Amino acid sequence: MPEAIVIRQRTVLDLGACARVLKSVHRTFGYPVNWPADPVRWLSPQEDINAWVATADARVVGHLALAARPSARPAREAMVERFFVDPTSTGLGIGRRLLDHGLASARAQALDVALEVADNCQAAVELYRRAGWRETAQMPIDWGRDKASTLLRFEPPTPTESRPL
C-alpha cells in the first residue's frame, strides 16, 4: 500500500517522470490520442496557468494542468489539460483528488473551468461523470484518426453539486 498521496506543484524536475508515466498511460489507455514528438514540451505549454503532480512513495503517479483557453479574453477561463494517472495507480482516488484540486484552484482564482476529452478515453469520461461534471457538447474531430472521432466537453458541478470522494 503506498504512502499518503501528496498533490503538489509540478516542478521542472518532475517533467521526466511525468513523461514516463504519460508513455505508460498512452500505451494502456490511448491518452493522448496522438503521441507528442516531445512529451516534456507537450506537458508544459506556454498556456499553462498551473500544473500539479500527485506522488506516492516519492514517485510521480499523476499530473493535471490548468491552461488558459486560447480564445479567452480576458483570461478568466481555464481548461483542465494533460490530466493522467499512472495505470498502476488507478482505483486509488488519485484522479479524483487531482481533478478536485485543479477545480478548487481555478475557483480560488475566480476562473471558469471546463475540460475536453476524446471519446476513446472512457475511464476518464466515467470519472468526470462520477465527480458531477456535466457533458455540455460533442464536437467531431479529424485528428483522432481511427482511435477517436468525437471530443466531449465537460463543465464542473456548481460548488453545491460537488460529490464526495
Tags for this entry?
single chain, alpha+beta, 7-stranded mixed beta sheet, globular
Domain tally: 1
Structural class per helix/strand content? alpha+beta
Q: Give a quick account of the main beta sheet: strands, pairing sense, barrel closure.
A: 7 strands, mixed
Low-confidence stretches: none
CATH architecture: 3-Layer(aba) Sandwich
Radius of gyration: 15 Å
Strand content: 25-35%
What does the overall shape look like? globular
Report helical residue fraction. Answer: 25-40%
CATH fold name: Aminopeptidase
How are the strands of the largest sheet arranged?
A: 1-2-3-4-5-7-6
Secondary-structure element order, N to C: EHHEEEHEHEE
Tally the beta strands.
Answer: 7
Number of helical elements: 4
The CATH homologous superfamily is termed: Gcn5-related N-acetyltransferase (GNAT)
CATH class division: Alpha Beta
Mean pLDDT: 87
Distance between the termini: 19 Å
What does this structure look like?
By secondary structure, the chain is of the alpha+beta class. It has one domain (6-155): 3-Layer(aba) Sandwich (Aminopeptidase), CATH 3.40.630.30. The protein has four helices and seven strands. α3 links the parallel β4 (77-85) and β5 (112-118). The relative contact order is 0.16. The model has no long low-confidence stretch (mean pLDDT 87).
